[in-house]
DNA sequence: ATGCTTCCCTACCGTAGAGTAAGAATCTGT
DNA sequence: ACAGATTCTTACTCTACGGTAGGGAAGCAT
């Protein structure tokens, strides 16, 4: 009589548990989240968590794994080889920021929790490194005359870092995806102080200036 | 007979304790660090920690406070009003990255630990926000014809984010300060794919490649 | 040489929370 | 309608660790 729902097949319950776990982890962090809290949130009893996932660590790892999966999937449209490299970068940017905009919990769990939790950082750093390598590739492909000695990987590190910082603001609801994508695209190609996008833009309208 | 050293004046012991605490916190994170571990590292007994700082939280807060202080101090040379804004930005960049290069533990504690520890994040976010505002100001001051509607704060967020990402690589010993500063300066003014610094550069010499 | 202050320790308490034992329902095939 | 598998719960155990009680020894006055 845990709450009403009962006797669901394992596969379903597992997802429910992960949903609850991601929620609570993203709210309170790994250490300040108790298994009881997750169980309660999932309207289930604690031993179920241990039956399906073996331990708190494994449960958290499962969260990272599923959310990381989703994260990578959200970026695959950017891999479309039909697009010009620079367009790919634009798509990647929008996919990335769009993913954070929705799925804020995933973002919080993956980046603000997992990355700082020794023992899980490596697992996330993998997806991150792939993102960086992808970015480095796109930068390299779309640069006409690369200055000799240019380290595209470090450039990608910087750009991804900028993206993550901006993503945090998106997750905080302070700016919207389009504006952020514009900013980062300009950052990549013209520098911060450079003019904005040369073509269209402002087409949307002149209104507020901030999102919310 | 805790280890040999004995009966030091309070002010000294307090610093010892903070040194030890910063070390251990930066290695293991807040939650995976026990007060016993810190006491042992400081060659002191646990009740001393509680006598001088009242609790684990307060001790951690003291760490953040001291390291944050040092962090801000390291950036003050950039405030020199005699410098042109763009030079100020360059100095700020080098001060920031230089600080991370030495004081890696401070960096880890402040950013990788405190920022992800709910309850302390706000305290650090303060210093961070000031850094962002400072950067935004410098950007604004040194931009000739600001495109109307340009949000310098968000730009600063992006640039600082890039700086933090690069700083992590510095802390990891993967690149050196000068190279990172060049990269970020170029990022700010010309964009990632832009040419490197037009003037001197490579003037330093080809030596070691690492600092320490 | 006696009190007062400062510094410091050994030994303990209390509890939050990870993990488990034991078994009760419910479903599925035959 | 019975056996076996699957889902699920209540009610525990046990340990790590934050925090404390109580006292001891060293310096410094007068």
Automatic annotation (TrEMBL), chains A, B:
Domain HTH tetR-type residues, every copy: 11-71
One Pfam family of this chain: TetR_C_46
Keyword Plastid in record: no
UniProt cross-references to SUPFAM superfamilies, sorted A to Z: Homeodomain-like, Tetracyclin repressor-like, C-terminal domain
PROSITE patterns registered for this protein in UniProt: HTH_TETR_2 (PS50977)
Keyword Transcription regulation set for record: yes
DNA-binding region location: 34-53
Source organism, top-level taxon: Bacteria
Keywords: DNA-binding, Transcription, Transcription regulation
InterPro entries in alphabetical order: DesT_TetR_C, Homeodomain-like_sf, HTH-type_TetR-like_transc_reg, HTH_TetR, Tet_transcr_reg_TetR-rel_C_sf
Protein name (Swiss-Prot/TrEMBL): TetR/AcrR family transcriptional regulator
Species for this entry: Rhodococcus chondri
Lineage start: Bacteria, Bacillati, Actinomycetota, Actinomycetes, Mycobacteriales
């Amino acid at each position: 009589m845990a709450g009403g729902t009962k006797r669901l097949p394992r596969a379903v319950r597992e997802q429910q548990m992960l949903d609850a776990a991601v929620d609570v982890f993203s709210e309170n962090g790994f250490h300040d989240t108790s298994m009881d809290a997750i169980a309660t949130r999932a309207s289930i009893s604690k031993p179920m968590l241990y039956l399906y996932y073996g331990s708190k660590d494994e449960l958290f790892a499962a969260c990272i794994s599923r959310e990381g999966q989703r994260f990578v999937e959200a970026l695959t449209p950017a891999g479309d080889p039909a697009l010009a490299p620079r367009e790919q970068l634009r798509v990647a940017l929008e996919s990335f920021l769009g993913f954070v905009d929705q799925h804020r919990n995933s973002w919080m769990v993956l980046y603000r929790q997992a990355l700082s939790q020794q023992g899980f950082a490596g697992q996330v750093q993998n997806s991150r490194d792939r993102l960086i390598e992808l970015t480095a590739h796109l930068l390299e492909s779309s640069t006409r005359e690369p200055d000799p000695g240019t380290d595209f990987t470090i450039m990608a590190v910087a750009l991804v870092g900028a993206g993550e910082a901006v993503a945090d603001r998106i997750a905080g609801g302070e700016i919207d995806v389009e504006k952020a994508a514009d900013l980062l695209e300009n950052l990549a190609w013209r520098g911060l102080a450079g003019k904005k996008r040369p073509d269209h833009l402002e087409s949307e309208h002149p209104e507020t200036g901030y999102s919310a």
